[in-house]
């Protein structure tokens, strides 16, 4: 039986509809040896793309919303791939409730920025995934006090460090 040429390997034509075999592509990627890279290294390498997408979100929303408006960023390391962190940039008129965001996105890092009419950017909060929150709140003395505050306030906890 002939093998399909490499470029056609992921093509599919079933029931008259053309598409791609995404599962096969992911499987092939996972089979390849890839260097182990830490999340920190991934984020450092991706910072230019992050800034570009962040600025794009601000530009797209600065005339849509009144000042101040917010950019809510969800970040998530994909479990199926070693070196993939995805970010979603969401422009909003109002700030989301941090507790609600923890419930809705328990495995994502959640960051909220406030943008004013002159383009000044302020960080309102950054909250990691729920497992990290538990670790931080169990050992608050090991972490930056501001991070401990961001993690504890949605739960109505006041921790003195």
What does this entry show, briefly?
This protein is an alpha+beta fold and 161 residues long. The protein has helices at 22-31, 39-61, 98-104, 130-138, 145-152, and strands at residues 11-14, 17-20, 69-77, 85-92, 109-115, 121-127.
Q: What can you tell me about this protein's structure?
A:
It is a single chain. This protein has helices at residues 22-31, 39-61, 98-104, 130-138, 145-152, and strands spanning 11-14, 17-20, 69-77, 85-92, 109-115, 121-127. It has 161 residues and is an alpha+beta fold. It has a domain at 39-127. The strands form two sheets. Strands 4-3-5-6 form a four-stranded antiparallel sheet, sandwiched between helices. The chain is globular, with a radius of gyration of 21 Å. It starts with 10 loop residues before the first strand and ends in a 9-residue tail after the last helix.
Largest sheet: 4 strands, antiparallel
Total number of β-strand segments? 6
Strand share of the residues?
Answer: 15-25%
Query: Going across the major beta sheet, what is the strand order?
Result: 4-3-5-6
Indicate the low-confidence ranges by residue numbers: none
Rounded to the nearest angstrom, the radius of gyration is 21 Å
**N/C terminus separation:** 68 Å
Coarse structural class: alpha+beta
Shape: globular
Q: Which whole number gives the mean pLDDT?
A: 84
Binned, the helix content reads 25-40%
**What count of helical segments does DSSP give?**
5
Order of helices and strands: EEHHEEHEEHH
């Amino acid at each position: 039986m002939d093998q399909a040429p490499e470029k056609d390997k992921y093509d599919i034509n079933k029931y008259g509809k053309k598409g791609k075999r995404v599962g096969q592509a992911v499987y092939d990627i996972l089979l390849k040896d890839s260097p182990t890279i830490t999340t920190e290294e991934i984020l450092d390498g991706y910072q230019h793309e992050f800034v570009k997408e962040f600025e794009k979100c601000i530009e797209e929303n600065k005339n849509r919303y009144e000042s101040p408006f917010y950019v809510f960023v969800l970040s998530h390391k994909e479990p199926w791939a070693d070196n993939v962190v995805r970010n979603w940039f969401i422009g909003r008129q109002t700030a989301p409730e941090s507790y609600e965001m923890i419930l809705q996105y328990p495995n994502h890092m959640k960051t909220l920025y406030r943008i004013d009419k002159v383009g000044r950017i302020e960080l309102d909060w950054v909250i990691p995934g729920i497992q990290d929150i538990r670790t931080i709140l169990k050992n608050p003395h090991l972490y930056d006090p501001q991070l401990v505050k961001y993690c504890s306030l949605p739960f109505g906890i006041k921790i003195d460090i």
